[in-house]
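LAB NOTEBOOK - FOLDING QUEUE
OPERATOR: T.R.
BATCH SIZE: 2
PURPOSE: Compare the predicted structure-token outputs for two unrelated chains run back to back under identical settings.
PRIORITY: normal
REVIEWER: second-year student, initials M.K.

ITEM 1
FIELD SEQUENCE / FIELD STRUCTURE:
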Amino acid sequence: MKSDDRIYLEALQVANLYYYQGLTTEQIAKEMSFSRPKVSRLLGHARSSGMVEIRIVNTRMALSPLEGAIAERFGLARVHVVPAEELLGEVVWLERVARYAANYLASLLQPGMTLGVAWGTTVSEIGNNLVPKRIPDLRIVQLNGSGNPFTPDNRYAASVLQAYANSFGAQVTLFPVPSFFDYRETKEAMWRERSVRHIIDLQQRADLYLYSIGAVDAGVPSHVYSQGYLEQRDFDELVDQNVVGDLATVFFRGDGSYDDIPLNRRASGPALSLYRDAERALCVVSGIAKVRGLYAALEAHYMTELIVDEPTARHLSRVAGVEGGVA
């Protein structure tokens, strides 16, 4: 028997004894004549390979006081505040949020669904934490282009979406256009092409949207602001327009307005009304610098559900004046 096959069968047997029969690792080690460390390794392999799915079912759909206060204030269907000590720093906050979001996303996806994904630092980190789970007939569509003068071939977004496709066994539809066109006329011409229209139509029909909020000065830099997608004149324009963040490279102000921002006329991302009108729009946010943008997006109803780390959530509650939200 091949080594991989033997490990698979051993992990399957150990997982059955542990999760279905309720045996302890010590009992399993004795029954199978394994060492306890080997049993632990096999259980770890069973979880990381997708053989075992661990679900936490909130049977009462109860929210913590902080989650409940934010959900009520902004009219959200669900808020998930991921525990994290503030002193751990924003890199760790993002790691915990991404791990939580990866597991939660897997629980939402069903066969035949279409998932719209806006690439970026947070969404990439979520992809790195996905546990393999095959979902039949799942389709993933890219929401915004990622080409720029340095990487015009869309390779960054393709790698992000491919991580999701590999984990779920999904079909991917890429959006091979620049993040920002040099001329609005070029974008308008491209948008008339049937091949591009087909992708845009697929974006519009997605069952679930996954995205984050971009911020210029985030502790963990947003990819679009740090990797050559914008020139200095673009940054100057964002300041002049009082921009506080972006969703899939479409920028918005503190009051949620976006359609008259000049740079958006050259942006490849969908109009923000897409998220406002969506049945399920999942926004994942981590980092204090994103709070201004998050607050504006919440006020404008650009999401139905939020996953956020605890320090960022507490900062948001102070900005929003949410009673009961601050410990």
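ITEM 2
FIELD SEQUENCE / FIELD STRUCTURE:
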Amino acid sequence: MQFKYHSPQNEKEISFINISELQKASGRIIPRDSFDYIRSGAGDEITMQRNTTSFNTKEIYPRTFAGIKTPDLHTSVLGIPISLPIITAPMAAHGLAHISAESGTAKGTAAAGSIMSISTYSNQTLEKIAAAGNGAPQWFQLYLSKDDGFNRHLLEEAVKNNIKAIILTVDATINGNREADMRNRFTMPLPLANLKKTGQNKALSLEQIFDNFLPNITLKDLSKIISFSKLPLIVKGIQNPQDALQAVSAGASAIWVSNHGGRQLDGGPASFEVLEEIAATVNHRVPIIFDSGIRRGQHIFKALASGADITAIGRPLLYGLAQGGWRGVKDVYDFFARELSMVMQLAGTPDIEAVKKAPLFTAH
């Protein structure tokens, strides 16, 4: 698939055929400090890079006699049908990439037939983002505040705007060692709409955001969120099987295996490296969502075959948003759908359930 957009900067059509080229093109139009905030990881970015390269430790067996012409990508998660096993991961400040901000991402996600995840640190209100989704399913990612009243306010807003599930991110109780942001002395240049009630919704450094809002998280917090919102709770940022079991025991409706895209602990394992063990430990008690490092349809196939029920995409969607607004977001979804469909056909897997049962070859 080839992405093509008309660039107002040079009055020429630009095109690129994969996510790597899309990232490079987006780096030329997003302001440098904002692009570094989106692209970069923690420390030496070893874990961030391994998130993608670790997929190479497993390979896909080709199958030749399955007679599959058009694989079926449809699936569901938490009772929500989706057109493909990919959703939009929660990300802060989409306005750094495009003027349409989260509304553009929500519209593109809805057009793809998927689920939009809205961050606490969005540039737009839940109400505006929900309206842009035009009734499509959306989840809300909660960053717990030290102010329990504010937490309740956010959950009330989520319920009021017909959010289908709460995502509690548990791997970011402190800011990761993001040296690119230090070098740029990055502060959030756009208001964070959901923080308006606190009076601290703009011109914040990342250290101020984390220091002011994020407490240590305990299992009691999971129970409180479930009790107050009455919505399914997804626990995001799980990288250890024991943490997964504890979250399920505390009432989590889904486990989200993620290392925050390599933005938190550099030197930790790649998400893909821990996925299989976590999925085996959870043993189908609840769905497994997976993100971090996905850049190819093959990566999605391997994640599903290693225990994930669905996958989530982050940075590539912001790059698509930067290039083409909501249509760019939809194009990124189409890119992954086309690659995944091709891989499924070559692997002899007619649908997503067949992908989940597909054996992988361990590369040596």
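REVIEWER COMMENT (ITEM 2): The mean pLDDT is 92.
FOLLOW-UP: none requested
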